[in-house]
Design brief:
It is a single chain. By secondary structure, this protein is an alpha/beta fold. Helices cover 44% and strands 13% of the residues. The chain contains 31 helices and 23 strands. The strands form five sheets. Strands 9-8-7-6-5-4-3-10 form an eight-stranded parallel β-sheet. α5 packs parallel to α6. The longest helix has 30 residues. It is globular, with a radius of gyration of 29 Å. The relative contact order is 0.06.
Length: 897
C-alpha cells in the first residue's frame, strides 16, 4: 500500500517549534526526568526538591535533548500531583520549556492531568491495544482533542510484539483504527516497536535487533507519515559493565535503524561511539550480532568483548599523509584545518595547472566538497569547518595575485567565477552582533558560495542597493536584539515594494520560526526562511537556488508557514488576558512590615577603569561559548562527550591559548559603571530613584496573561517597597564592557584570512563581559550593598544564580523594553564615564557589553513578561511621556497579535 501522496511531517513544540521532516537528524529524547530511569530524579521528587529536579531537566536540554520525557510512575509518590507540579514549574523556565515535552505514564489519569497543563504540542507516551480496542479508541480521541502526538506501543491483547510479523501486524491494526476510525492525524503517530536485548545466549533473542530494523522499514514504507521511536540502550543490556562494547552496539544499531526509518528515540549520547571510529574488528563482531549474520555471532562477541574491556584510544601525530598524492594532501589540510603546508601544496598545484583559477575550481573545491559532505553528515562540527575556511582563504589569498595577472593578460577570463551563488549577509540597522552571521558566511563560503558581507548596523537602503548592484541570489539578515525584528519586517516590505525575487534568510538569537511565519513571511511573496543554525544554511540555500526543484520547495515552505501562522494565531486568541488595571490588582504582594530591606554600604555611582581581565577567569560560564559554535552540552562534561568531546576539547584549548594571550598582552579593555540608589515604587509599576543629579523613574511592565487562582501577575516594581509603605528601599543599575579592542583584533585576524580567530575573539569577549557582570554582582552583594557579606558560592553555583537577589536586563524576558536602557545611561552617565554607547536600535557598542538592574529583596525572582495588551502600551506611553506609536514600535514583539 505504498503511497505517492505528499509527505506530512510530525510537528511538535515547546516555546519553540520542531518539525520532524525527512531532512531532520535523529531526534534524541532525554530520559533523566523519568523516575524509573534515574534514581536521583526519583529521590528528588520523593523529597519534593523540585528546584533540583528542574536542574536535571535543564541539563538534559543543555546536553542536546530535543524532547524531554517526564515519568512519575512510582508507588511511593502521588504521580498525578507530581506530574502537574513539575510540568507547571517547567512551563515557567523558558530555557527548559523551549523543547517539546513527552508525558510518559502507564496510568491514563496521570497522562490526562499532564495534558491539561502542558504548553505547546507534546507527545503522549504511550497507549496500546493491550486493554482492547474500546479503551484504545477512547484514549486516542482524548489525545487528539488535546492536540498532542502519541506513541503507540507494539502491544495488544495477546502481549508484546516480539518478532517481525507481530510488530507489523499490531502496527497496521493500530494505524488503521487511529486513521480510519478516530481520524487521528497520521503524522502525529509514533510507533515504539520494542527494542529488546541481543546476544543473551537465548536462541529466541537472536533476531531482536534485525526484526526491529526490518519492521521499522516496513512501517515507514507502508503506514504513511508516521514516525518510529524506541529505547536504544535495551539492545545492549546483556553487556552491562562493558561500556566500549555497549557504545559500539548502540552506534551500530542506530546506524542501521536510522537508515531503515527510525527517526527518534531515547539514547544517552555519552554511551554512543562514532560509527566510523569503531575499530574494524569490534565493528564486525557487533554487526554480526545486530544483523544476525552468523550462527555463532553471540559466542564470538562474548569472547571478543573480554579483549576490549577498559581499552582506550591512542592518539599520535601522524605526518605520513605528506607522502600521499597532491590532491589527498590538499584535501587533508582542508579537512583537518592544517595551514602549515597549504601554500607549498597550492604552489605545486599551480605549477601543474594551465591557469591558476583551476587550482581553486579543481583541487581546493574538491577538498571543500569533502568538508561539506562530512559536515552535512554530522562527522565534522562548526569549529572544524571554520578552521577549514581559514586554510581555504590562505590558499586563495596566495593564488589571487596569479589570477589577477592572468586576467590582465586575458581580459575575457574576468567574466564568471564559477561560484554556486552570491549571498548578501548583513546585521540589520541598530544591531552590532555578528558572530552567528559570520559563522553562516564561513560555512556557505566553504560550499563555494560568494559572500557579500556588509557587516553590522546596516541600514535597509544599503542592503537593497547592494543587492541590486551585486545581483545577489540570496539576502541573509541577522539580529540579536528585539528591535532587529521590526527592521527585518520593514526590509521584507521594502523588497516586496521593489519587486525583488531573491529569497530572504532570517537568523539570529531573537528570531524564531514563529516571528518569521507570523510577521515577516506575509510581507514578501517570495521565499522567506528562518535558519536557526549554521548547519542548515547550506541545505536551505541549495534548495532555494536549485532551479529544478526550488518552486516546489518554496511552495511547500509558504504553505507550511501559512499553516503555522494560522495555528499560532488561533492559540494566541484562545489565551485570556487581563486589563492592566486587573493585572495590577493581582500583583505580587510582599509583606513590607516583615520584609528584609538592606541599606547599601555605598550609595551613588562608582566607576571601574582599566580592570584586570585575569580576575574574571573564575567567573566565566563556558557552556554558552560552546553553544555559539554549535557544540551542545554543558561544560565541563562536554569535553568528555562521546559525540563532540574531541572537538570541544580542541576548541577549548584554542580558546584558552587566545584568552591567556589577551590576559598577558592586555589586548582587550574592560570598564564598568554601577550605582546603588534610594528607591520606592510609585503608581504601581514605576520605580522612582534618587541620585545626586535628581530623581529618575524606571518604568516596568506587568504580565497580563490571566493566571490560575493564587498566581500573581508580576512586574519588577513588585520587588521594591511602595512609597506609601513608609519603608525606604533601594535599587541598583550597571553597565560593564570587555569589548574595547575586540573590533581591531577581529579585523586583524580577518586581514590574515583567519576567520576562526576572528570569531573566537568575539566569542571570548562576550564570555568575559558576562563574567564581568557576574563578578561585579558578586562584589556588590558582598561589599557595596553588603546584604550577603558572608556569601560563599562556587562558580557553578553563581552560574545557577543560587544567590539572593536578581540582575534583570532590558531586552530580556522580565523587562523586554529596550527604551529603559536610555534611563540607565542617563542615571549613570554611561557614555561620558566609560564610553559605552547605544546605537539607534539601542544595542550596546562595543558589542561585548552587559547592562541591567540590581534587586536585593529575597523574594525577587526572574519571570517572563509574555504578551501584553494595547491598553498597557498606552499606559506605558503616558508614563514615559512618549508618543503611543513610538511606544508600540518598541513593545511590538510583546504585543498580542
Amino acid at each position: 500500500m505504498k503511497t505517492e501522496q505528499r509527505r506530512k511531517y510530525l510537528k511538535l513544540s515547546g516555546l519553540e517549534p520542531m518539525i520532524v521532516s525527512a531532512e531532520t537528524n535523529f531526534i534524541n529524547v532525554g530520559e533523566r526526568t523519568n523516575v524509573a530511569g534515574s534514581r536521583k530524579f526519583l529521590r528528588l521528587v520523593k523529597e519534593e526538591k523540585f528546584d533540583e529536579a528542574l536542574d536535571i531537566a535543564r541539563h538534559q536540554v543543555e546536553g542536546g535533548a530535543q524532547v524531554i520525557d517526564i515519568n512519575m510512575d512510582d508507588g511511593l509518590i502521588d504521580g498525578k500531583e507530581a506530574m502537574v507540579r513539575f510540568l507547571n514549574l517547567i512551563m515557567a523556565e523558558p530555557d527548559i520549556a523551549r523543547v517539546p515535552i513527552m508525558i510518559d505514564s502507564s496510568k491514563w489519569d496521570i497522562i490526562e492531568a499532564g495534558l491539561q497543563v502542558v504548553q505547546g504540542k507534546c507527545v503522549v507516551n504511550s497507549i496500546s491495544l493491550k486493554e482492547g480496542e474500546e479503551e484504545f479508541i477512547s484514549h486516542a480521541k482524548k489525545i487528539k482533542r488535546y492536540g498532542a502526538a502519541v506513541i503507540i506501543m507494539a502491544f495488544d491483547e495477546v502481549g508484546q510484539a516480539d518478532n517481525y510479523q507481530r510488530r507489523i501486524e499490531i502496527s497496521k491494526r493500530s494505524y488503521d483504527i487511529l486513521v480510519n476510525q478516530v481520524n487521528f492525524p497520521p503524522e502525529d503517530i509514533i510507533f515504539d516497536l520494542n527494542i529488546f536485548p541481543v546476544a543473551t545466549g537465548m536462541e529466541e533473542h537472536r533476531k531482536n535487533a534485525i526484526d526491529f530494523i526490518e519492521a521499522t522499514k516496513w512501517v515507514r514504507e507502508n503506514l504513511p507519515h508516521c514516525s518510529v521511536s524506541g529505547g536504544v540502550s535495551n539492545v545492549s543490556f546483556s553487556f552491562r559493565g562493558n561500556n566500549p562494547v555497549r557504545e559500539a552496539m548502540h552506534s551500530v544499531f542506530l546506524y542501521h535503524a536510522i537508515q531503515a526509518g527510525m527517526n527518534m528515540g531515547i539514547v544517552n549520547p555519552a554511551m554512543l561511539e562514532v560509527y566510523d571510529d569503531i575499530p574494524k574488528d569490534l565493528l564486525e563482531h557487533v554487526e554480526d550480532v545486530i544483523l544476525d549474520r552468523r550462527d555463532d555471532a553471540t559466542e564470538r562477541l562474548l569472547d571478543f568483548a573480554e579483549t576490549v574491556v577498559g581499552t582506550s584510544k591512542e592518539k599520535t601525530i601522524d605526518l605520513s599523509w605528506r607522502e600521499e598524492s597532491l590532491q589527498n594532501r590538499i584535501t587533508r589540510a582542508l579537512v583537518k584545518g592544517i595551514d602549515q603546508y597549504i601554500v607549498d601544496d597550492v604552489e605545486e598545484a599551480r605549477q601543474a595547472a594551465e591557469k591558476p583559477i583551476e587550482v581553486i575550481e579543481g583541487n581546493l573545491m574538491a577538498g571543500m566538497n569533502v568538508v561539506g559532505d562530512l559536515f552535512g553528515s554530522g562527522k565534522m562540527f562548526l569549529p572544524q569547518v571554520v578552521k577549514s575556511a581559514r586554510v581555504m582563504k590562505k590558499a586563495v589569498a596566495y593564488l589571487l595575485p596569479y589570477i589577477e595577472e592572468e586576467k590582465r593578460k586575458n581580459p575575457e577570463l574576468a567574466e564568471g567565477n564559477g561560484s554556486a551563488g552570491k549571498v548578501l549577509m548583513a546585521t540589520v540597522k541598530g544591531d552590532v552582533h555578528d558572530i552567528g552571521k559570520n559563522i553562516v558566511s564561513v560555512v556557505l563560503g566553504c560550499n563555494n558560495y560568494e559572500i557579500v558581507d556588509l557587516g553590522v548596523m546596516v541600514p535597509p537602503e544599503k542592503i537593497i542597493q547592494t543587492a541590486i548592484d551585486e545581483q545577489v541570489d540570496v539576502i541573509g539578515l541577522s539580529g540579536l536584539i528585539t528591535p532587529s525584528l521590526d527592521e527585518m519586517v520593514f526590509l521584507a516590505k521594502e523588497m516586496e515594494r521593489r519587486n525583488f525575487k531573491v529569497p530572504l534568510l532570517i537568523g539570529g538569537a531573537t528570531t524564531s520560526k514563529a516571528h518569521t511565519a507570523v510577521k515577516i513571511d506575509p510581507q514578501y511573496k517570495n521565499a522567506v526562511v528562518h535558519v536557526n543554525d549554521a548547519s542548515r544554511a547550506v541545505t536551505v540555500v541549495g534548495d532555494l537556488l536549485n532551479k529544478r526543484s526550488n518552486q516546489k520547495y518554496v511552495g511547500d515552505l509558504k504553505e507550511d508557514y501559512e499553516k503555522f501562522r494560522e495555528g499560532f494565531l488561533k492559540r494566541t486568541k484562545q489565551k485570556e488576558y487581563l486589563t492592566i488595571e486587573e493585572a495590577r490588582k493581582n500583583k505580587y504582594i510582599i509583606d513590607w512590615n516583615s520584609s528584609e530591606i538592606s541599606k547599601p554600604n555605598k550609595l551613588g555611582p562608582q566607576v571601574i577603569e582599566d580592570f584586570d581581565l585575569k580576575k574574571l577567569e573564575p567567573y566565566i560560564d563556558w557552556t554558552p561559548f560552546f553553544r555559539s559554535w554549535d557544540l551542545h552540552g554543558k561544560y565541563p562534561a562536554i569535553l568528555k562527550d562521546n559525540v563532540v568531546g574531541e572537538q570541544a576539547t580542541s576548541l577549548f584549548k584554542d580558546a584558552q591559548e587566545l584568552l591567556q594571550k589577551v590576559f598577558k598582552e592586555k589586548l582587550l579593555g574592560a570598564k564598568a559603571i554601577y550605582g546603588l540608589f534610594e528607591a520606592n515604587t510609585v503608581n504601581d509599576d514605576d520605580i522612582q530613584l534618587t541620585s545626586g543629579s535628581g530623581d529618575f523613574k524606571f518604568r516596568t511592565l506587568r504580565q497580563q496573561l490571566k493566571k490560575h487562582a493564587g498566581k500573581p501577575n508580576f512586574a519588577l516594581a513588585d520587588f521594591i517597597a511602595p512609597k506609601e509603605s513608609g519603608k525606604q528601599d533601594y535599587v541598583g543599575c550597571f553597565c560593564v564592557t570587555t569589548g574595547f579592542g575586540t573590533k581591531e583584533l577581529a579585523e586583524a585576524f580577518e586581514a590574515d584570512h583567519d576567520d576562526y580567530n576572528s570569531i573566537m575573539i568575539k566569542a571570548l569577549a562576550d564570555r568575559l563581559a558576562e563574567a564581568f557582570a557576574e563578578y561585579l554582582h558578586h562584589k556588590i552583594r558582598k561589599e557595596d550593598w553588603g546584604y550577603a557579606s558572608d556569601e560563599q558560592f562556587t562558580n557553578e553555583e553563581l552560574i545557577k544564580e543560587s544567590y539572593k537577589g536578581i540582575r534583570p536586563a532590558p531586552g530580556y524576558p522580565a523587562c523586554p523594553d529596550h527604551l529603559e536602557k536610555l534611563t540607565i545611561w542617563e542615571v549613570l552617565q554611561v557614555k561620558n564615564k566609560i564610553g559605552v554607547e547605544l546605537t539607534e536600535g539601542l544595542a550596546m557598542w562595543p558589542a561585548a557589553s552587559v547592562s541591567g538592574y540590581y534587586f536585593a529583596n529575597p523574594e525577587a525572582r526572574y519571570f517572563g513578561l509574555g504578551k501584553i495588551k494595547e491598553d498597557q502600551v498606552k499606559d506605558f506611553a503616558t508614563r514615559k511621556n512618549i508618543d503611543f506609536e513610538y511606544a508600540k514600535k518598541w513593545l511590538n514583539p510583546n504585543l498580542i497579535d
